[in-house]
Structures are given as C-alpha cells and as structure tokens.
Amino acid sequence: SFTMNMYLFVYDLMQFCGHSWIFTNMIIRFMTFGKDSLADTFYSIGLVMRLCQLLSVLEILHILIGIDKSRLLPRFLQITERIIVLFVVINSQEEIQGKYVVCVLFFLWNLLDVVRYTYNMLARMGIYYLPLTWLNFSLCIPLYPLSVLAKGFAICVSLPYFESFGTYSIKLPFPFSFSIYFPYVLKMYLLVLFTGMCFIIQNLFYERMAHLGTGNMKNKRS
C-alpha cells in the first residue's frame, strides 16, 4: 500500500510538473508576445503536451488494477477524448496546429490538470486543503463543457482538410469494394463526444457532492 501510494504520488508529481510547465509557458509567452504567441502554441509546447497525454493513459491502468478508486468509464472517456483530438485531429493536420482553438484547448486542459494533480499529490499525503478541494471539484464543472466545445470546434475546423487531403480515409481494392471516409467518422464522433459530455458532467456533480457534502466538509475542517 505504501509503495503504491508513493508510485501514485510520483506519477501525480510528474504530471503536475509537465502541466505546470505548459501552463506557465503559455502565460509567459502571451504576456511577452501577445496574440502572436497563440498561433505557434502547438509548436512550442506540443511535444510536452503529447507526452503528458500519453502518460495519462496509465490512469486507466491504475483504475483497472485497483490502486485508483476513480470510476473507470468517465475517466476513460475523458482520456480518450483528448488522445483522439490531440493525436488524430490536431497532430495529423499541420493547418490546424496554428489555429487559436488549439491554444484555447491547451489552456483549459492545463488549468484543470494543474489543479487536479496538485489536489491528488496532497491527498496522497493525507492533506486536504479546503479551498483547493473546493476548487478541484468545482472548477471542472464549468470548464469541462467549454473544453468539449473547443474539441468539437477543432474537429469541425479540421473537416475540410481531412476531405482535401484524404487523411485516414481508406479505400480497399476489389473484391472488398469497401471504403472508410474519415470525415464521416469524425462527424459521428462528434455525437459521441457530446453524448459522453452529458454523462461526464453528471459524474462530476456526483463527485462534487461526495467530496464537498456537508458531512465531508466538516470532517475535512476537523
């Protein structure tokens, strides 16, 4: 138990350092270069962002083997949403990487993750700072839907490029005569994205009630 707790603490620390670096870098660049910094956000921090998101796949494994008590489906949906949008949509289309929506998306992701991993690190040590607990379980409720809207907008902006370049579209030769037109796949995924959003928001409210209920708040104060 102690070993697993230390492992999770190190994992949260690594994620905190990565997302803090990205978040700080974005703010400093914006304060220095203004709007000009938005267009090359992906080029300046995209590598670290991709590493952090790949590392987050371990959180699914943590739940499966039982060392993390979070619910599997909501966390799985949140992680796969980011993986699909970042690696399949943004990373594959260079024309999308310079859009302002990428900067907005990265800002929302990292703001949420800096708070979440800070809370997780302290929780591993048995420290529950009341304002941070409130922020962790409250901030995600308005910001997560905004991030879903940004993901949906990024997908919509990418559709003309997938149509023009035929990226990921597959046409099998005879005798199969079967083809996959990837823009249609993305349009169907938009339905999945917004349907999953309703389920995840419901789960976020459930977690907030579980951690910030009257009884829990009194226990944490004591």
- The low-confidence parts are none
Number of helices: 10
Instruction: Report strand order across the widest sheet.
Output: 1-2
Strand coverage percent:
under 5%
What about the largest sheet?
2 strands, antiparallel
Structural class: mainly alpha
Helical proportion, percent range: over 70%
SSE order, as H and E?
HHHHHHHHEEHH
How many structural domains in the coordinates?
A: 1
- Shape descriptor: globular
Radius of gyration (Å): 19 Å
User: What is the number of beta strands?
Assistant: 2
Mean pLDDT across every amino acid position: 91
Q: Termini separation (Å)? A: 25 Å
Keywords:
2 strands; two-stranded antiparallel ribbon; fatty acid metabolism; transmembrane helix; Tyr_Pase-like_PTPLA; 82% helix; 222 residues; lyase; single chain; mainly alpha
What does it look like?
The model has no long low-confidence stretch (mean pLDDT 91). Strands 1-2 form a two-stranded antiparallel ribbon. The protein has one domain (2-220). A hairpin with a 7-residue loop joins strand 1 (170-171) and strand 2. Helix 7 packs antiparallel against helix 8 (130-165). It has helices at residues 2-33, 36-39, 41-55, 58-65, 72-90, 94-97, 100-124, 130-165, 182-212, 214-221; strands spanning 170-171, 179-180. The protein is 82% helix and 2% strand. The protein contains ten helices and two strands. It is mostly helical and 222 residues long. It is globular. Belongs to the very long-chain fatty acids dehydratase HACD family. The chain crosses the membrane at residues 7-30, 42-65, 127-144, 181-201.
